[in-house]
Design brief:
Elements (H helix, E strand, L loop, with lengths): L13 H4 L4 H12 L20 H18 L7 H13 L3 E4 L6 H12 L3 E5 L6 H5 E7 L5 E7 L6 E5 L6 H13 L1 E4 L2 E4 L5 E6 L12 H4 L4 E4 L5 H13 L11 H12 L5 H12 L10 H6 E3 L3 H17 L7 H12 L4 E2 L1 H5 L4 H13 L2
Parallel strand pairs: 1-8, 1-9, 2-5, 5-8
Antiparallel strand pairs: 3-4, 6-7, 10-11
Helix pairs in contact: 2-16, 4-13, 11-13, 11-14, 13-14, 14-16
Length: 377
């Protein structure tokens, strides 16, 4: 983990209290994203008192490294996307992936299923898709004796790795059926409940450009996703590598490096990672500071946030930070882990207001300001 210089500052900078110019704020946020954080904004990392099981941490890190290596056989670039997806898989969460067509969303999930050697299924959501098409239904069949019997035909959600492609094209009724399975890891059909096999992971995609004929996910449904990850358009060099890769073969080349039981063991280890009270308070303050309607709201929230994140944001932040700490060889959660995961955790859980839009600020820009303000406290 990169170390940053440390200083302290008693007061919040004037650029947060006053209306900042859009360009100045964006440059400041971009600098922080690259690690060029001002010295006074950095908190001192507290020391963990719990002894780290070194062998388990090393195996955890090696497993993640092996997964990344295999995924990069099929995916060019997209380092941040791959990191966040792996964290979500280990955590047992789900990911909403947003990106223009052709950036490798389907290929990423297919390669992930091969890397984990888990059953894969893909659902192409359309307006005429019904809930039973997703979850499964009871059908009448003849048994060996020739009698008609009612049997359950499982739907595509029973795969352990599921790609819900263009989920915002389905009607709200079908969306609700899909998201219920995703959240509860179970489905009820005709009064009978069926459990999903663990590990269970859903990656849903949506196109940020074309919105005609879509049904935007309500905020309550969006909140069920652990992360929202943005798949950026490739660079010129990456585009060339993608073309060369596709000319060689269209098939996924990733091979199995871990399996379901190993993922569950990694999840169990992550649950044991300690979070000291100071870091937990820091994470909870960050979530709390997204709310402008509460008593003594943060300056950034009052100026730029329409409504803030739910308690699930705090859960996702801490759970993901534990896994990120292990990936980097640490057995305690740091402030850097919290800050790094604030973007995918909060990106779909807060709404910015007209002031932010008028100043040309994106949601990520506002999250960057919230992180900076939180460091001062």
């Amino acid at each position: 983990m990169e170390k940053k210089e440390k200083k302290t500052e008693a007061e919040m900078p004037e650029e947060v209290k006053e209306a900042p110019a859009a360009e100045a704020v964006k440059e400041e946020v971009k600098a922080e994203a690259k690690g060029e954080v001002k010295e006074e904004a950095k908190k001192e990392e507290p020391a963990a008192e719990v002894a780290a099981p070194k062998d388990e941490i090393q195996k955890f890190s090696e497993s993640v490294t092996a997964m990344k290596t295999e995924l990069h056989k099929d995916i060019i670039g997209q380092e941040e996307v791959i990191d966040d997806v792996i964290i979500a898989v280990v955590a047992g969460g789900n990911v909403l992936l947003e990106g223009v067509p052709g950036t490798g969303k389907t290929r990423l999930v297919r390669s992930l299923s091969q890397t984990l050697s888990l059953p894969f299924s893909r659902i192409q959501f359309t307006p005429d898709l019904m809930p039973n098409d997703v979850t499964g239904t009871n059908i009448i069949r003849k048994n060996q004796a020739g009698d008609l019997v009612m049997t359950f035909q499982p739907g595509p959600v029973f795969a352990q790795i599921l790609l819900a492609d263009e989920i915002n094209r389905a009607t709200p009724k079908t969306q609700a059926a899909m998201l219920e399975v995703m959240q509860e890891h179970k489905v009820t059909v005709s009064g009978k409940t069926y459990e999903m096999q663990e590990p269970y992971f859903v990656l849903a995609t949506q196109n940020p450009v074309e919105q005609d004929g879509t049904y935007p996910l309500p905020e309550a449904q969006m909140d069920r996703f652990m992360f929202k990850v943005e798949m950026k358009f490739p660079t010129v060099r990456e585009l060339g590598d993608i073309v060369n890769l596709s000319q060689a073969t269209q098939a996924e080349r990733a091979t199995k490096v871990v399996d379901g039981p190993r993922i569950m063991a990694m999840r169990a280890l992550a649950e044991k990672v300690p979070v000291i009270p100071e870091v937990l308070e820091y994470a909870m303050n960050l979530v709390h500071n997204t709310h402008c309607e509460l008593e003594n709201p943060s300056e950034v929230a009052k100026k730029y946030v329409r409504y803030g994140a739910s308690p699930r944001a705090g859960q996702g932040l801490v759970t993901g930070a534990k896994i990120r700490a292990l990936i980097h060889g640490n057995y305690n959660v740091s402030y850097d882990d919290i800050d790094a995961l604030a973007y995918p955790v909060l990106r779909h859980r807060i709404k910015i207001n007209y002031n932010a839009i008028n100043e040309g600020l994106s949601i990520d820009d506002v999250i960057g300001l919230l992180i900076k303000e939180n460091r001062k406290k």
